[in-house]
């Protein structure tokens, strides 16, 4: 499980087709797998709506 600060990394899901989606995922999850980090992916549009 992730402890302390969680650093997120920008990822593109389904980059080669029309259902392409940009999300932010926990860097630990990306590098070590879902057992290492319980944070969920966050859709980029959700972040934009929250901060812009």
Mean pLDDT rating? 84
Q: Categorize the overall geometry.
A: flat
Spatial extent as radius of gyration: 12 Å
Helical/strand content category: alpha+beta
Could you give the order of the helices and strands?
EEHEH
Relative strand content: 25-35%
Please, how many domains? 1
Report the end-to-end length measured between terminal Cα atoms: 30 Å
Strand order of the largest sheet: 1-2-3
Q: Specify the helix fraction band.
A: 25-40%
Q: Tell me the major beta sheet.
A: 3 strands, antiparallel
Tally of separate helices: 2
Number of strands: 3
Low-confidence stretches: none
Main traits of this protein?
3 strands; 2 helices; 52 residues; flat; Zn_ribbon_recom_dom; alpha+beta
Structural account:
- The chain is α+β, with helices and mostly antiparallel strands.
- It has one domain (1-41).
- The chain contains 2 helices and 3 strands; from the N terminus they run ββαβα.
- The protein has a 3-stranded antiparallel beta sheet with strand order 1-2-3.
- Strand 1 (8-13) and strand 2 (21-26) form a beta hairpin.
- The longest helix is centred in the last third of the chain and has 8 residues, at 44-51.
- The protein is flat and about 30 Å long.
- The mean pLDDT is 84.
